[in-house]
Amino acid sequence: MIQPLAPEHVRAIAPYQPGKPIEELAREFDLDPAGIIKLASNENPLGCSGRVRGALSQAAGSLQGRYPDPNGFDLKAALAAHHGVPPAWITLGNGSNDLLELASLALLDEGTSAVYAAHAFTVYRLSTQARGARHIQVPARDYGHDLPAMLGAIADDTRLVFIANPNNPTGTHVPPAQVRTFLDAVRDRHGDRVTVLLDEAYDDYLDPDERVDSARWVEEYPNLIVTRTFSKAYGLAGLRVGYALAQPALTDLLNRVRQPFNVNALAQLAARVALADTDFLARTYALNRDGRSQLQDAFAALGLDYVPSHSNFVLVEVGDAARVHRELLRRGIIVRPVAGDGLPQHLRVTIGLPQENTRFIQALTDILQP
Question: Is-contact 225 198, C-beta < 8 A?
Fold first, then answer.
């Protein structure tokens, strides 16, 4: 008998399913790519800022056959100034997804467990599975994180707790006071044995009164990792750059398992320029705030239940989500089915430009009320 080529826990992984690319849908339904709108992957419909495009155009002509700065000195300096932490507390990643994988690689193995919530970002499950660690999935409360239940679920072998705030794919948000209470309780009960990873990929979409300076928490809690990305509000999804904030002991571990040159030269440059373009970030926030109201008001008018969103997407219950998804695809509109996240009757809809939102709303209305 031929032995399997990989361990059972690897063979059991269900690969991540990204949002359908525009080009693939065009081929599948013989559609004009220019007429397709993609509201599936929580990308910024504005793209990146003009300053970033200009900087990339200039840099592209001078690229040489040399590796990028492996330590990202200039980008780390900019991030350190932005967050008020030492550069040595920053780890760069190929998107924040890379940082999630690095944390699981550094902290988990077959004799440990990770705690995460149901309906949370699927990479928490995938990265736990890839290390052969034990899954402790805690039922959601109102589609979001039940932090008291997650605290109670931490076991003797638990080494990592994932919290997405705001959460993907549900758009829920845990108030900062509740997160801080959780961090205090983890430290009091488990010391530094359990690391909490606070995934803030969508933090820039929060209303100002919902935000917290989590870098100050990093100063206080040696068992905390905060991850951020430039893929969402900053519009750099195609360049893949994110970062983590943590005290030196955890940062050292992340860098021990990080691939060298994991963030390319153009991504490092684009992130530095994007970080300084506060006008573009404010424009993104305002566009998203208005678009979120546009979608949620339409769902209410259609009598559809939705989860009030704190992010750049809305989770809506449409009944036969598989059928609705297919019909939207036929009309050249890509949204995200979330049956794999335990939500078979829901779709996750990224907030687009006003005209894109309008076209989606009309298509959804036609499908549900023919």
Answer: yes
Q: Between the CA of residue 236 and those of 39, 75, 233, 284, 342, what are the distances in Å?
A: 16, 14, 8, 13, 29
Closest CA to 171 of 148, 203, 196: 203
Residue 204, Cβ density class (10 Å: 0-12 exposed, 13-18 middle, ≥19 buried): buried
- Classified as helix, coil or strand, 2 is coil
Q: Give CA–CA dist 180/32, Å, rounded.
A: 49
Q: Is residue 345 part of a domain?
A: yes
208, amino acid identity: P
Show which of 236, 253, 277 is a domain's final residue: 277
Q: What is the pLDDT of residue 1?
A: 42
* Residues 152, 88 share a domain: yes
Question: Cα separation of 272 and 147, whole Å?
Answer: 34
- Provide the domain count of the chain: 2
Inside any domain, residue 75? yes
As a whole number of Å, the end-to-end CA separation of the chain is 56
Backbone angles phi, psi at 31, to 5 degrees: -110, 155
The whole-number pLDDT of residue 16 equals 65
* CB count in 10 Å sphere of residue 157: 14
Q: Are residues 97 and 245 in the same domain?
A: yes
Residue 54 domain flag:
no
> Does 256 lie in the same domain as 177?
yes
Give which of 160, 154, 159, 163 is closest to 117, Cα–Cα: 163
DSSP string, 93-121: ESSHHHHHHHHHHHH--TT-EEEEETTS-
Q: Are residues 245 and 324 in the same domain?
A: no
**Which parts of the chain have pLDDT scores under 50?**
1-2
pLDDT recorded at residue 124: 97
- Rounded to two decimals, what is the model's pTM? 0.94
In-domain check, residue 59:
no
